[in-house]
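Our consortium's second objective concerns turning raw sequence data into structural hypotheses that experimental partners can test. To show how far this objective has progressed, the report includes one record in full. It was chosen at random from the queue rather than selected for favorable results. The single chain below, 145 residues long, was entered without modification.
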Amino acid sequence: MAAIFDQLNLVSRDFDATIGFYRLLGLKISEKPVWRTASGAHHLSIPLANGLSLDFDSPALARAYNKGYRGGKNGGNAVIGFGVRTRRLVDDTYAKLIKAGHKGLQPPWDAFWGSRYAIVSDPDGNHVGIMSEVDPKKRSPPPAI
C-alpha cells in the first residue's frame, strides 16, 4: 500500500501571527479556540479538500512529538502553494499581505510556465507562493540558468 499525502504540518514560533497570515490568504479558520496548554503547546488543524489537512503546532508541541525537532529559524526549503483564479488576484493578494507587514520574496511576475506568480514569507519564514491559473498563451521557454 502506497503512502498517501494527507497532512502538511507547520511549526510556528508566533502562533497567532501565523494564523492571521493564513486568514489573510483566505483560509477559513474557525474562531473557536485552538488546542492550547499552560505549557505553551498549541495545535490547530484545518481540513482542506481531498482529505488533506493543514496543521499548525507550536515549538513546545513539536518538541513533545518530535525528538529531532531543532527549532529552525529560517523556514524550510518548501514553497507552500496557494492558487487564485486570476492574474490580478495574485497582485491583489501579494499587496494585501505586504501591506499587513509580511515580507515579499518575489514580487508578482508573469512566469514562464504561463501563470502570474509571487512569493511571500509567512511569520515563520516559510515561503508561500501565490499563483494564478496557467494561461497557455503566456508560456515562454524557461530562462537559462
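The partners drew two points from this record. The radius of gyration is 17 Å. Residues 15 and 80 are 17 Å apart (CA to CA). Both points have been shared with the crystallography group to help prioritize constructs.
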